[in-house]
Amino acid sequence: MPKTPALATDCIIRDGAGRVLLVRRKYEPFKGVYALPGGFVEIGETVEEACRREVREEAGVDIGALQLVGVYSDPQRDPRGHTVSVAYLVRLPGEVTPHVGDDAAAAEWVEDWRKHALAFDHGQILADAEDLADTLP
Amino acid sequence: MPKTPALATDCIIRDGAGRVLLVRRKYEPFKGVYALPGGFVEIGETVEEACRREVREEAGVDIGALQLVGVYSDPQRDPRGHTVSVAYLVRLPGEVTPHVGDDAAAAEWVEDWRKHALAFDHGQILADAEDLADTLP
Distance between CA B33 and CA B72 in Å, rounded? Predict the structure, then answer.
């Protein structure tokens, strides 16, 4: 198999009031900074399975149907090396309480993500997800 | 960087009459069979750039705006190993004549792709792309 960019997935989890479930990164790069829950896809799992697994591992919640938001592939978007992320949007009731996992420093509902610094290109992904959410029934 | 599935891209090119531009594969797997133009993403290029490059290399045409169709990641979809493909839809005038490149055995407009055997999961990708095309203005 040829060597290709690394493959990752990120998840935009919104509640009915427009809050977003974010994690604080436990490790570099962007240690301590808010980020979308997500991570690398493992060989042998679908991207959707990887997304659900990462959200469960980092934020302790189970998510349902995933809506594709976009594919983010700028070679500079991750300082560790070229990483392509597939972003999904999911709706979760705000009453669901996240439980931070071993891979994150915090997991919490955030009222207005635009007020915070965000890791990687996650601000752009969140903006795109909001545009998509506005078009959904 | 962790080892993740290989990353590829495939392109659904339709003309105004619903014809689809397909290539015949020059190499195994699926040698001689119709397939969407596409291939592996190189480190340092975006997925969109890879899509345009592969279409140019295999079918000799330049394509414009790409519309994301889906991300196909079943671990069994490529017999060579776990390969995730990002599929894009593009519209091209039917008067454009493809010119087969070194990496393909043929490149041609196909009237009804449902009448032919297709490589990989390209039948599913084409069906999804048609559904998407029906929703576009």
Answer: 20
CB contact under 8 A, A75 and B45: yes
User: For residue A41, which amino acid is it?
Assistant: V
Residue-wise pLDDT for B67-111, tens only, equals 999 999 999 999 999 999 999 999 998 899 999 999 999 999 999
Cβ within 8 Å, pair A41-B86: no
Q: What is the ipTM score, two decimals?
A: 0.95
| Cross-chain CB nearest to A84 (options B40, B47, B82) | B47
- Specify the CATH number for the domain of residue B26: 3.90.79.10
Residue A1 lies in a domain: no
Does A41 reach chain B within 8 Å, measured CB to CB? yes
The whole domain housing B91 covers 6-133
Alpha helices in chain B (DSSP H): 47-59, 122-135
Model confidence at A137: pLDDT above 80: no
Q: Residue A73 and residue B8: Cβ atoms within 8 Å? A: no
